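Appendix B. Chain record.
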Amino acid sequence: MAEFPEELDFLSLFECEPTMLDNSKDYPFYYNEATYRFSNGYEDFIVKISPAYGEVKIQAIKSDSNRLVSILDLKRIEKFEIIANTKELASVLLTVINEDSQQIIEIDFKPYFKQVFKEHLTT
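Structure tokens predicted for this chain:
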């Protein structure tokens, strides 16, 4: 089972309310799909999270030119960690575990977008 933060942690990190795929109050956050749209003043982000499926899609677009900066579409997130969540800094760490490797993706949303991808062999 994938490890994801709670719904309130995402509200604090992204500083916005998500659009939920299923809006019924009886449908738990963990089994739903949440879409967050927010900006750091330099880049605009669309983040889709489906914790039960371990899916995360992050799209970053340059605010002033509407130019696509990055799309990260992952289907097997094992662990989603919030490593920084302050007024000045927002950063997450995503972990994907494969049969013979572990992939670590560090993403900064504030103050600017940054993405670092590392892969480690486990065999």
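Further analysis of this model is presented in Appendix C.
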